[in-house]
Amino acid sequence: MLITIITPTWQRRETLLERCIPSVFKQTWPEIEHIVVSDGPDRELAELIADELWKRPLRKRLLFKQLPDHPAGDVDYGSRARNHGLKYASGELIGYLDDDNAWRPDHLEQLAEACRDVDFAYSQMIRHPAGDIIGDSPPKYGQIDTSLIIHKRGLPERAGMWPLPHQIKYDKHAPDWGAVERWLAAGATWAHVPSVTVDYYQQ
């Protein structure tokens, strides 16, 4: 089964190439499609992504897309890029990894199993350098991060896409909780993996 990963990126080329992409490449799950969506034109990054493609096994492919018509100076915390990436996703399951974070090798394997009979699943992360653990159950504000989530294909289209800041009721900086809140309101089912599978880095 193919899993699609969507990564928005903007001005974090170093962490994208040295931390994010390698952690996807190291996943124990065999079939992966990784879509990197640039939040602005970046020809050099596109060429570097193309170089990375040749380091992948045939069942782990890497795609580069550019977000069109993004208003200059408009900060949306990756929501437009994630929604744009969904247009190209081929996987039966969809996951997300921010360009400055990393997954542990069994992240997708654990989440795919947990998502078998539900609409979405999420795990836990350790926040560096603080060392605290995020990702309690049940899902609630402050305990959900984009990089923890995997969902079945079609869930955002059915229950709610990644929201823009003006569409979020509470914290305008939290599209992750904004999306999950929409899904829960639409009756989405979920599962929790009580295991740290994500390394989250505070810049």
Describe this structure in words.
This protein is α/β, with parallel strands linked by helices and 203 residues long. It has one domain: Spore Coat Polysaccharide Biosynthesis Protein SpsA, Chain A (Alpha-Beta Complex), CATH 3.90.550. Helix content is 28%, strand content 27%. The protein has six helices and nine strands, in the order βαβαβαββαβββααβ. Strands 1, 2, 3, 4, 5, 6, 7, 8 and 9 form a nine-stranded mixed sheet that branches. Strand 1, helix 1 (13-25) and strand 2 form a beta-alpha-beta unit. The mean pLDDT is 90.
List keywords for this structure.
Spore Coat Polysaccharide Biosynthesis Protein SpsA, Chain A; 6 helices; 9 strands; alpha/beta; nine-stranded mixed β-sheet
Question: How would the blueprint of this fold be written?
Answer:
Layout: E1 3-9, H1 13-25, E2 32-38, H2 43-53, E3 60-66, H3 79-86, E4 93-96, E5 102-103, H4 107-114, E6 120-128, E7 132-134, E8 149-152, H5 155-159, H6 175-185, E9 190-201
Parallel strand pairs: 1-2, 1-4, 2-3, 6-9
Antiparallel strand pairs: 4-8, 5-9, 6-7, 6-8
Can you summarize this structure?
It contains six helices and nine strands; from the N terminus they run βαβαβαββαβββααβ. The protein is of the alpha/beta class.
